[in-house]
Write a structure and sequence with these properties.
The protein is an all-alpha fold. The chain is about 80% helix and about 0% strand.
């Protein structure tokens, strides 16, 4: 018995020595300090960070637009150039089947937000005067969601997924950190202050983003559950929702990638079941199809113009309010999701990672927006439900969504399916984030190794603590979300370093392969 206890203690000590405490704890303490500032000085903190965000969005907005379009073009170049033939790892057999891989890609990031915004984003655009200036209001209210959740945002994920996958499976680097991906450019500087700064920014952005990710959807979940069960909406109900989500994703991630894979497959089937029901039984099938085709055509025809429009005279500030905001929001999430996609892509070529990622990511995203969004838009345009007037009266998107879904037959059953889909989406997203945060905690970890279960359990519980605390202070939640958007500015610079490093390292690798084949 004593021998077993000594072994366990030795293993625990060894694990503690493997942890990068500086990179793990400093961002956490910074987030706690910010939360304390938000609570103690709500007015001054709000004014300060709002001013910073407005400056970055208004004065530096072109920075985000250039990065967005540049990364998208870069992704296509990687896929169709000689770099696209590089295979991740020394096996021709992919680690996961196409469905398993695709479902994990789609559910790893903002899938729950995609489902939420699919139900209501057209309302926001239809209420914006600029949309009417573009042409037929219903056409552009259906087009902008496809643009803001389309190729450019997914390009952020996929370019970095290729870079991280190359770093993990081809170069077999054991430091699974943002800084390590910059080594080909920065060299040994990544082992010093520069590397620490990069990793601190990355973990800070990760914590700020995940701490506020529930701020959008928990009121909808609470409202749906209240409608079905009759339980009054309250902070207590929201707490229960967060705890349930935490329990589900903690259980799945504790059992490793098999648990994550099962969670992703489950929510994918629930998601498409919900979409199929709305499509076939909502009474707007023809409108959904035709408006979807129109929106896709609009997006294709106007893509470059939408991606480069800066509104230099600020006649509407539409790109500052929407496009730049979304690009920054997706960039913050690039800290976690691309690492996860890169890690599960062993056995695939970079061409397959990028093009396959676009196929699975865009097909799921576009299907959701076309069906859920155009269903509500169809009710509005056919005079069956005046959603815009309701929203104009109270400004509550959650009420509007519940009104829209209430028009479906067996609406309470639909709300149950919606709740299950969103909970499993959030659970799967947090699965991937927990896995990435756990690997980030280690000083070194091989690409085919999983973090210790205790480390995953720590992050699974830790990532839910800030959302639990912040639901008691709505102002703090909003402020922290703004901080996560501000964090996208330095993350963008790091992204450019990673992409440059990838091209340098991948070119050297191909030259090595060519030299070896000749000799």
């Amino acid at each position: 018995m004593k021998h077993y206890t000594d072994q366990a203690a030795a293993g625990q000590t060894s694990l503690l020595h493997q942890i990068d405490w500086f990179t793990t704890l400093v961002p956490f303490l910074c987030i706690l300090a910010l939360c304390a500032w938000f609570v103690i000085s709500p007015e001054s903190s709000t004014n300060t960070i709002s001013a910073i965000r407005n400056f970055l969005g208004d004065e530096m907005g072109s920075y985000y637009l250039i990065i967005g379009l540049g990364v998208f073009v870069c992704s296509l170049y990687i896929a169709f150039s000689r770099f696209g033939k590089i295979r991740l790892g020394d096996t021709d057999k992919p680690l996961y089947s196409g469905f398993q891989w695709g479902s994990m890609i789609f559910t790893a990031g903002l899938a729950a937000d995609i489902l939420f915004y699919s139900c209501c984003e057209w309302i926001l655009y239809a209420s914006d005067p600029h949309t009417a200036e573009m042409g037929a209001l219903h056409d552009w209210a259906a087009t902008y969601p496809l643009f803001h959740w389309g190729p450019i945002p997914w390009g952020f994920y996929l370019v970095l997924s290729a870079a991280f996958g190359f770093m993990l499976h081809v170069r077999k680097r054991t430091r699974q950190k943002y800084s390590e991906a910059c080594r080909p450019v920065l060299g040994n500087k990544v082992d010093g202050l520069a590397g620490k700064l990069i990793d601190l920014i990355a973990v800070f952005a990760l914590l700020a983003g995940t701490a506020t990710t529930f701020s959008l959807a928990t009121p909808l979940l609470a409202g749906a559950i209240s409608t079905v069960t009759g339980i009054p909406q309250s902070t207590g109900l929201t707490l229960v929702i967060l705890i349930v989500v935490c329990a589900i994703y903690t259980f799945s991630v504790y059992f490793g990638m098999k648990g994550v894979q099962l969670s992703a497959a489950t929510c994918t089937w629930l998601f498409f079941g919900l979409l199929a029901y709305v499509f076939f039984f909502g009474g707007q099938t023809r409108f959904i199809i035709e408006e979807g085709i129109t929106a896709l055509g609009n997006l294709t025809q106007n893509f470059i113009g939408l991606a480069t429009w800066t509104d230099s005279l600020r006649t509407s500030s539409f790109p500052q309010t929407w496009t730049i905001f979304y690009w920054a929001y997706w960039m913050v999430w690039c800290v976690a999701v691309p690492f996860f996609i890169g890690s599960i892509s062993k056995g695939r070529t970079l061409r397959q990672v990028i093009l396959g990622g676009y196929v699975f990511g865009l097909s799921g995203t576009f299907t959701s927006f076309i069906i859920m969004g155009n269903y509500g838009l169809g009710l509005q345009m056919h005079g069956k439900l005046d959603v815009l007037s309701t929203y104009a009266a109270d400004g509550n998107l959650y009420h509007a969504i519940l009104d829209i879904l209430g028009q479906l037959p067996l609406s309470k059953a639909v709300l149950v399916l919606l709740v299950l889909s969103m909970i499993t989406f959030y659970s799967t997203s947090f699965d991937s984030i927990t896995m990435v945060a756990s690997t980030y905690t280690y000083k070194e970890l091989k690409s085919d190794e999983e973090p210790h279960r205790n480390v995953k359990l720590f992050w699974a519980i830790f990532l839910i603590l800030l959302p639990l605390a912040l639901i008691f202070s709505e102002n703090s939640m909003s402020n922290l979300q703004t901080v996560s958007i501000i964090a996208a500015f330095p993350v963008g610079i790091i992204m450019l370093l990673i992409i440059t490093s990838f091209f340098k390292d991948a070119d050297a690798y191909l030259q090595e392969q060519a030299h070896n084949s000749k000799s």
